[in-house]
Amino acid sequence: MRKEDRLHPIFSITVYYGEKEWDGPLCLRDMIVDMPEPMARLFSDYKMNLVQVRDSGKYTFNNEDVKTVFDVSREFFEGNIEEVKKRYKDKELQPELVAVIGKITDSTFLMQKGKRGRRPINMCTALEQWVSKEFEKGEKQGSMQRDRELILKWTRAGYKTSEIADLLGFTEEEVRRVQAEK
Questions:
Q1: Predicted local confidence at residue 131, as pLDDT
Q2: Would the pLDDT of 3 be above 70?
Q3: Chain centroid to CA 118: how far?
Q4: Residue 180 and residue 182: Cα distance in Å, rounded?
Q5: pLDDT, tens digit, 9 for 90 and up, residues 19-35
């Protein structure tokens, strides 16, 4: 390498798409055992550039696809399915984006829909089909256990009792009973 040669910068970005807030290390030093002071002075620390899906509303994304993936995933985590349906009712997403959203939100249905698709997918229709499939799974299993799991999952995600009752076809009282059992 000559003294006039220059390097191009490389930026590492960690994208965290867990449902809970990140509580891990934010720099290399946070991951290193205690060092004697003479070594610590020579140690080069590296900051982690962390992007969390849960708080991605504060970021500005220039790429519309990236913005959509973060937006839909964040709203999904917050249990705002109706908001997603309203905002994206006329928007069609590429199958790869739907698969990424499915992976981030742990939705096998959306992952498969994205992987199998060749044409753009209407997000509103996909979410309605997802809710329908989740309900059918509960019926096919022939037990209230799956429905209880959905009620508890959607409760943790912030769904209102009335929304859960509407989505699963139960009375609000039945949903409250399951919520009280947890």
A1: 65
A2: yes
A3: 23
A4: 6
A5: 788 999 999 999 999 99
How far is it, in rounded angstroms, from Cα 145 to Cα 111?
A: 24
Q: What would the pLDDT profile of 116-141 be if each residue is shown by its tens digit?
A: 767 877 776 776 666 666 655 555 55
Residue 133 · residue 147 · CB < 8 Å: no
Contact 33, 15 (CB under 8 A): no
Please report where in the chains the tokens 């839909």 appear, as a residue. Answer: 72
What does the alpha-carbon distance between residue 43 and residue 161 come to, in Å, rounded to a whole number? 53
In this structure, are strands 121-122 and 92-93 parallel, antiparallel, or unpaired?
antiparallel
Query: At 142, is the pLDDT very low, low, confident or very high (cuts 50, 70, 90)?
Result: very low
Q: Which two tokens stand for residue 93?
A: 């997403």
Six-digit token pair at 158?
């912030």
Give the integer Cα–Cα distance in Å for 89 and 69: 15
pLDDT of the residue at 87? 82
Phi, then psi, of 94 in degrees rounded to 5: -65, 145
Fill in the amino acid letter for 87: R
d(CA 125, CA 48): 38
CA distance 37 to 31: 17
pLDDT at position 171 is 84
Computed over its alpha carbons, how large is the radius of gyration of the chain? 22
